[in-house]
Design brief:
eight-stranded mixed β-sheet, binds 2-acetamido-2-deoxy-beta-D-glucopyranose, alpha/beta, hydrolase, 15 helices, M14A_act_pep, Aminopeptidase, about 475 residues, four-stranded antiparallel β-sheet, globular, single chain, Alpha-Beta Plaits, binds zinc ion, zinc
Amino acid sequence: MGSWTRMVVLLPFFTSTFCTPLINELEPGKDWPTRGSVKQPYNQTDDVQDPIEASTTTSELVNETPSSGKDELEDITIIARAAEGNAKVDYSGAQLWKVSTEKNGVRVILGRLKRRNLIATWAGNQTYVDVLIKPNAVANVTRVFSRENISYDIIIDDLQKRINEENPPLDENEIELQNRRGHRMTWKQYHRLQDIHEFLDYLATTYPKIVSVNTIGKSYEGRDLKVLRISNGNPSNKAIFIDGGIHAREWISPATVTFFINQIAENFAEESEDFKGIDWYFLPVVNPDGYEYTHLVDRLWRKNRKPAYAGRACFGTDLNRNFGYRWGGKGASSNPCSEIYRGSRAFSEPESRALSEFIKTSAANFSAYLTYHSYGQYLLYPWGYDNAVPPDHKDLDVVGKNIAEAIQKTGGSKYSVGSSSGLLYPASGGSDDWVKAQGVKYTFTVELSDTGRYGFILPTTNIEPVARESLAGLRILASYVSKL
Ligand SMILES: *[C@@H]1O[C@H](CO)[C@@H](O)[C@H](O)[C@H]1NC(C)=O
Ligand SMILES: *[C@@H]1O[C@H](CO)[C@@H](O)[C@H](O)[C@H]1NC(C)=O
Ligand SMILES: *[C@@H]1O[C@H](CO)[C@@H](O)[C@H](O)[C@H]1NC(C)=O
Ligand SMILES: *[C@@H]1O[C@H](CO)[C@@H](O)[C@H](O)[C@H]1NC(C)=O
Ligand SMILES: *[C@@H]1O[C@H](CO)[C@@H](O)[C@H](O)[C@H]1NC(C)=O
Ligand SMILES: [Zn+2]
C-alpha cells in the first residue's frame, strides 16, 4: 500500500484561520482507515469475458486482431522506447473533421482509413464523429471522401498551430503571484505533474487539520499516484471519490479536478454544511506517465505508457478499458496498438489496480464517484459495457439532469445526460462500471467541454469557466449525497 506522506511542517498563519470547532485534528494514521476485513460486494466471478462482438460503433473503428494476451508476457522487458526518440510528435498539416456517420457505409470506410493509419477518431456519438486526419494524409482522405460522397466540415485546419497556441506561458503578474503563493498551480495554464503534486502537498502542509495526501501506488514508470483527502473527520460522513486524467491528453480534466480541490480546501470553513459533511477524495492524475508524455512528446497520447509484448512496437493500455467489471467486452480492443487496448487482463495496469485497491480497501463510505474526461459535454451513468442500466438508473438520471441544469445555469454549457452505452456506444472495462458494481450509488463519467470546436486542444482561457460551472454541478451532487 502507499506510503504515508503527510507533511508535518505547519504554517501557523494559515492554520490559525481554520481552527473552527467543527474541524478535528485527526491522529496521523487514523484518518485514512482501511476496511481490510470487511467483505466487499465485488463479485470476482463476474469477471468473465464476453466475446468481442462486431458492432458499428465509433470505438470499433480500430484494427482488431485476436488477443494473445497471456500473463507470462506481462513482465518481458520491451524494446522500442529508445527507438521512439525524444523529438516531439509534429501535427503540422493534420486536420480535424466533423463527419456525419448517418449515411450507410461511412463507418466502414472510416475503419478502413484507420487501419491504413491515415486517420484517428476523437470523440463521437451515434450520428457524428470527429476525425483526425493525420499529417500528409489530407489529400488522400479528401479523395476517398469525395469519391464516396461523404460530407464533412473542417473544424481545425492545422492541428499543430492549435497545439502551439493552446498553453501559452503565464504573464509576469501570474508568475509573481505564483512565487508568493507557495505553489505554482494556476487555472490559467495546463500544468506539469510536478506543479500539481506540489500543490497537493502544499495544501496538506497548510491545512493539516482537514487536508492530507496519501500516495496510493505508483505508475508503471514509477510516478506517485497521489490522493488528496479533505475531511472534517466526522466518522459518519459520506464520501465522494473524484478522479481525473485517466486519459492523458484530456488536459481539462486534471485542471478541473484541481480547481475543485483548491476551492474546497481554501474555503472549507465557509462552505455549505453539505460540503463540509463529506469526506472528499481526489486523484487528479490517474495516468501520470501518459500525462507527462503528452507534455513532452505527443500531445495526443491517450493511454498509459506500459509497453505491450516483446516484439511489438506498441505502448500503453487504455486504463478506462482495464477495469474488472465485464472486462473484455464490447468497445474495447485486444490489439495492443489500438487506442482502446484493454490490457492483457483486468487490472493488468498498475494505475487502474492501485485505484481499485484503494476504493476496495478504504473504510470511506463512498456514495458517489465522478471521473472527469473530455470531451463532448456528457454526464454518463452506467452501464458502459452494454446497452443496459442498473436498477437505480432513474435516481442517477434525476441527479444527472439536476447537475446538468446547474452547469447550464452557471456557465451556459449544455450537457446531455444518459447511460454511456445508450447515449454514446458500449465501452467495457470502464472505471465507472467497476465502481458502480462495488455498490457506489452516484457514479458518473463526466465528459467536459467542448463539443468539438477545439476538442482535446482546449485553450487555457476555458479552464476557469469549465471548472466553475462543473463546481456548480458538484454542489448538486453533494446535496443528494448528504440526503442519502
Ligand atoms: C456473481 O456472479 C455469479 C456468476 O456470474 C452470478 O451468478 C451471481 O448472481 C453474482 N452475484 C452477485 C451478487 O452479483
Ligand atoms: C452528436 O454530435 C453532433 C455534433 O457534435 C451534435 O450536433 C448532436 O447533438 C450530438 N447528438 C447527441 C445525441 O448528443
Ligand atoms: C496517398 O496515395 C498515393 C497514391 O495512391 C500513395 O502513393 C501514397 O502513399 C498515399 N499517401 C499516404 C500517406 O498514404
Ligand atoms: C456520388 O454522387 C454522384 C453524383 O451525385 C453519383 O453519380 C455517384 O454514383 C455517387 N457515388 C457514390 C459512391 O455514392
Ligand atoms: C453508508 O452510506 C449509506 C448511504 O449511502 C448508508 O445507508 C449506510 O448506512 C452507510 N454506512 C455506514 C457504515 O456508515
Ligand atoms: Zn477520456
